[in-house]
Amino acid sequence: MDGVALLEQEVRELIRRRGVDPLRDPESLDGVVRDALVAYDERSLRGHVPPLADPASAAKTVLDAVAGFGLLQPYLDDPEVEEIWINAPSLVR
Is 36 within 8 Å of 14 (Cβ atoms)? Predict the structure, then answer.
């Protein structure tokens, strides 16, 4: 499992434990992601988990997965994108 997926699992677990609603409380969600990122970074320095190449990008990916529409979120944030066609679970145009 890659580092971003591990970080996402940890963030989801912290959300459940702390009772944070990702959609209604984005400030608390940001805090959860920051806390998880710091803890993950400390463990990666000790060699317990794989290091993250770009922690800021990893945090954005986790936020998109937890409080957004996952892999579709960048398209929704892009003003140049007018429509998204989902032709199959693995085929988006």
Answer: yes
